[in-house]
Specification:
By secondary structure, this protein is mainly β. It has helices spanning about 30-40, 170-175, 180-185, 190-195; strands at about 1-5, 10-15, 20, 25, 50-60, 65-70, 75-85, 85-90, 105-110, 115-120, 120-130, 135-140, 150, 205.
Length: about 210
């Protein structure tokens, strides 16, 4: 596998090694030893063990996010698409981080087979770019309803540059999510970081 850091260095794009012949192709979708070794080469810590796998199916225009879980059940995610394509977004909400309040966006698809590694301390969301898009992700903690939280997808402070081909489809919970500044209630957030967030809307798009 090949790992490449994004403009937020802790968020990493993963390109698996593909073996192809006349029968089709094969790849390792996950290998813990290789994943940890490649993270260490980048100076990044390996994650806690993955404990839950999730699989969603979305029609074109469905937007899910921006979601995260509060401590003690914060989740890191390893995400990929096995059918269709998405525009996948991670937002840094870690106090003390030099990229606090910034975002990165990556196109993940069944065709490019890329994955995205999103550590704990990030809000995450995606926009389905095709009908019948299947999105899979591993998490380092279990879903905990009492710890779930969200930031509004179109928050003006974060200013994610979502693709604009048609209208977005969101559920009522995501439509009612608070803005970034209103969401800064996770433990330990200081007034300094709230002030930093007021000016943090720099993003990065990776194709």
């Amino acid at each position: 596998m090949k790992l490449a850091q994004t403009s937020i260095p802790d968020v990493v794009i993963i390109e698996p090694t593909i073996f192809e012949d006349e029968r089709g192709w094969f790849m390792e979708s996950f290998n813990e030893d290789s994943f940890h070794a490649e993270l260490r080469k980048l100076g990044l810590p390996p994650p806690r063990p993955f404990v839950q796998d999730n699989h969603s199916c979305s029609g074109k225009g469905v937007l899910r996010g921006l979601h995260y879980q509060l401590p003690p059940h914060a989740q890191a995610k390893l995400v990929r698409v096995v059918r269709g394509s998405v525009y996948d977004v991670a937002v840094d909400i870690r106090e003390g981080s030099p990229t606090f309040g910034k975002w990165v966006g990556v196109i993940l698809s069944a065709a490019n087979r890329k994955m995205l590694w999103i550590p704990e301390g990030f809000a995450h969301g995606f926009l389905a770019l095709e009908d019948d898009t299947h999105f899979l992700y591993k998490t380092t903690d279990y879903y905990a309803k009492e710890c779930e939280a969200a930031i509004r997808w179109d928050d003006k402070q974060i200013a994610v540059q979502w693709p604009t081909d048609g209208q977005f489809i969101l559920n009522s919970k995501d439509q009612a999510a608070p803005g970034f500044l209103e969401s800064l209630h996770f433990p330990g957030t200081s007034e300094h970081h709230v002030r930093r967030a007021e000016g943090a809307h720099v993003g990065s798009v990776t194709k």
